[in-house]
Amino acid sequence: MRILLHSYLLEAGSGGVKRNREVIKYWKKYVDEIIYVPLLGDMRRASEDDEFRKKMYNEIKSLGLEIPEKVSEVIDSEVIKRVPINMSKLKFDLYSNTTQYKINSEISKIMGKIDADIYYAQQEFPQMVDFLTKIAKNRNVGALIHIENFLGSLTEDFSHFYRAYSSMGLSGIMYAFYVTFLRSYPRRRKWVELINSGKVKFAFSVSEPLAEIYPFMRKIYTGVLKPGNAFDKKLLDFRDKGKEDYSVFYARLSPSKGVLELLKIWRKIDENKKLIVMGKFSDKKVEKLFMKNKPKNVEYLGFVSQDKLIDVVSKAKVLVYPSHFDSFSLVILESLALGTPVIAYKIPGVRSVYEGLNAVKLVKEGDLAQFRQEIRKIYDMPTKEYEDLINDKKLWEFLYEHSSWEKVALNELEELKKVVN
Q: Which three-class secondary structure state does DSSP give residue 87?
């Protein structure tokens, strides 16, 4: 079996990229060949930066993937120079909604049709899927959908983004309008077009049934990958190292992950209860708002090493995680593996994976008072009850099911084989 991938692989750090790389490690043992066509942005950068070009090729080859010879021709072409770099958000969205599809067509003429059994984008961006349809020799084209970038309708989109960004005030509400109409709507519209044209055959999710969220996807093969994610087993070695009297939050520090709501929650928590925040801010404006409104009992450590992160999370009393955007959250999974219970919003992706686990307390999205109440319950919990919470039989069964990247990879590979067959 030959798989052609067009995915985010180079910028290790996000949960999605980590998942892609881990899965590929195991696919190599079970398939004939994995072909990788770099993203247009990476090929554009490689056209100007020889050092990056060399690094890109070396990194992809180190993952055991093959880059088609024609990629080099694309990098040296005049067409790739029309892909803009260092764009503002507005310019990027205008480009990706229009010009990128034209460039896809021109680059595909240079690439030609590439022989593979299946063509797979490990992200839901329609620009990537559109490109695959143009270089595919068959209809076995599809993607892994992370349910964040668009929902089933404009109304759902705006409600979703309003909840995510209104913590920034008027500018956040305006941004919710912007994302709804200039990002989500065009992406959903393009997906509908691709599916109606018969050029896309399948789509997978790691949490929710796609056909229930997107009626237009009922025309193609869809499936929920189970298990959809995994954690590194070494995390289990850090359980039972002793708990300290603080809470923790770590993620990409953006309004969509609830980093500003976190401050509103913590402002009414007892002053002697500390919250440690770790991660990198999505932009300077969010960082300024965070620093300006940060209570004294909130400590920001910045972007820390993996060893430091594991140490801090494993000793925390609880992970507070008011995220608005998540499908199968690796942050929650890793916290549970480290023996730290979680309080999170009951958003669809989190609910579909973690509901029913006593160590994950789910709160109605936006209900800050209930969130505080759950935090206080954890702090007031007797030691025996707390230990039972993080050593619950059902939790251990869940952790066992999600402790193998090879199991995740083989399950996904089986689903891909179903599409081919």
A: coil
Whether omega before 38 lies within 30 degrees of 0, making that bond cis, reads no
Q: Of 257, 270, 258, which Cα lies nearest the Cα of 297?
A: 270
pLDDT in tens, 65-75: 999 999 999 99
Q: Which of 74, 84, 57, 78 is nearest to 114 (CA)?
A: 74
**Residue 350 and residue 360: Cα distance in Å, rounded?**
10
The Cβ of residue 379 has, within 10 Å, a number of other Cβ atoms equal to: 14
104: DSSP letter: H
**For residue 10, what are its two tokens?**
């180079």
Residue 343's DSSP bridge partners are: 320, 361
The residues that bridge with 278 in the sheet, in sequence order, are 250, 302
Q: Return the residue matching tokens 């005049």.
A: 78
206-255: pLDDT as tens digits: 988 898 888 899 999 999 999 999 999 999 999 988 899 999 999 989 99
Q: What parts of the chain have a pLDDT lower than 70?
A: 11-14, 148-149
For residues 332 and 321, the answer to whether their CB atoms sit within 8 Å is yes
From the centroid of its chain, how far is CA 270? 33
What is the structure's pLDDT at 92?
Answer: 86
- 178, with CB counted inside 10 A (0-12, 13-18, 19+), is middle
Determine the pLDDT at residue 142. 97
The per-residue pLDDT for 340 is 97
Residue 180 DSSP one-character state: I
Through-space distance between the first and last CA atoms of the chain, rounded to whole angstroms: 11
CA–CA dist 161, 325 (Å, integer)? 9
**Contacts by 346-354, CB closer than 8 A, 24 or more apart:** 347/323, 348/147, 348/207, 348/208, 348/213, 349/147, 349/207, 349/208, 350/323, 350/326, 352/207, 352/208, 353/207, 353/228, 353/328, 353/329, 354/329
**Across-strand partners of 5?**
36, 120
Q: In this predicted structure, what is the pLDDT of residue 101?
A: 95
Query: How far is residue 174's CA from residue 168's CA, in Å, rounded to a whole number?
Result: 10
DSSP letter for each residue of 309-332: HHHHHHH-SEEEE--S--SS-HHH
> Is there a contact between 267 and 260 (Cβ–Cβ < 8 Å)?
no
Token pair, residue 47, equals 């056209």
Task: Please report the pLDDT score of residue 85 as a whole number.
Answer: 84
Residue 98's CB is within 10 A of a number of other CB atoms, namely 10
